[in-house]
């Protein structure tokens, strides 16, 4: 069972390993054990043998394979980063105290904080927040919220129609529009799938 970053590292080194920040996004890794949760895997009927060892960021995976080394003309040691992009983003701006929060914004945005241990209470299960494994043993306690998806998809659709707008041009149009004419819930299920988002908004 290799996720995309794991597969890239495998192609570089020939070594199979699951990096734990990305593995934790599958909901198949125990928040306490930080290893594959056999009970969940068994209940889902998945073959346990496809799940490899979980490695932490900073693990020296190995050197380049012979084929890659011959192709690029050099050798080096491949070291696992936090392969989940959010894990690396949060590592770049670590919390300075226990009251810090962060917002990692992109197509989707993640709002949360770094914790020393996961929150696993009954209230947590209803909160929509998740405990994702972060770098340096931290827990990224966060909520997935809408980011730039609506703008990106609208821009793509306008371009398909022959109207190519830059992000700056769309921003200027939004600023020039009369405010508070309508309300859009960006988290509405109608906006999840790609396609004609401007049409769905109208």
Compact description:
By secondary structure, the chain is α+β, with helices and mostly antiparallel strands. The protein has helices spanning 4-13, 20-23, 38-43, 66-72, 85-92, 122-127, 149-160, 167-176, 197-201; strands at 18-19, 54-55, 60-63, 77-79, 102-104, 108-115, 130-133, 139-146. A hairpin with a 5-residue loop joins strand 7 and strand 8.
Structure description:
This protein is of the alpha+beta class. Helices cover 34% and strands 17% of the residues. A four-stranded antiparallel beta sheet has the order 5-6-8-7. The chain has a two-stranded parallel ribbon with strand order 1-2. A hairpin with a 3-residue loop joins strand 5 and strand 6 (108-115).
Layout of strands and helices, then pairs:
Elements: H1 4-13, E1 18-19, H2 20-23, H3 38-43, E2 54-55, E3 60-63, H4 66-72, E4 77-79, H5 85-92, E5 102-104, E6 108-115, H6 122-127, E7 130-133, E8 139-146, H7 149-160, H8 167-176, H9 197-201
Parallel strand pairs: 1-2
Antiparallel strand pairs: 3-4, 5-6, 6-8, 7-8
Computed structural class: alpha+beta
- Kindly state the percentage of residues in helix: 25-40%
Question: Could you tell me the strand content as a percent range?
Answer: 15-25%
Strand order of the largest sheet: 5-6-8-7
In the predicted model, the low-confidence regions spanning at least 5 consecutive residues are none
Number of strands: 8
Describe the biggest sheet? Answer: 4 strands, antiparallel
Tell me the number of helical segments per DSSP (H or I, 4 or more residues long): 9
Distance between the termini: 42 Å
Average pLDDT figure: 88
Oligomer: single chain
Radius of gyration: 21 Å
Q: What order do the SSEs take from the amino end to the carboxyl end, as H and E? A: HEHHEEHEHEEHEEHHH
Coarse shape: globular
């Amino acid at each position: 069972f290799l996720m995309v970053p794991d597969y890239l590292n495998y192609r570089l080194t020939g070594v199979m390993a699951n990096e734990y920040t990305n593995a934790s996004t599958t909901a198949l890794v125990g928040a306490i054990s930080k290893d594959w949760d056999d009970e969940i895997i068994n209940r889902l009927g998945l073959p346990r043998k496809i799940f490899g060892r979980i490695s932490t960021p900073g693990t020296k995976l190995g050197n380049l394979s012979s084929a890659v080394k011959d192709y690029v003309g050099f050798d080096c040691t491949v070291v696992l980063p936090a392969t989940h992009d959010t894990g690396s983003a949060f590592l770049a701006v670590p919390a300075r105290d226990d009251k810090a929060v962060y917002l990692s914004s992109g197509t989707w945005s993640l709002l949360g904080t770094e914790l020393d241990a996961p929150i696993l209470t009954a209230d947590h299960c209803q909160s929509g927040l998740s405990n994702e494994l972060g770098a340096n043993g931290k827990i990224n306690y966060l909520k997935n919220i809408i980011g730039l998806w609506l703008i990106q998809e609208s821009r793509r659709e306008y371009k398909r129609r022959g109207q190519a707008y830059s992000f700056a041009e769309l921003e200027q149009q939004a600023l020039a529009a009369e405010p508070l004419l309508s309300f859009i819930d960006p988290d509405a299920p109608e906006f999840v799938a790609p396609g004609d988002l401007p049409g769905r908004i109208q």
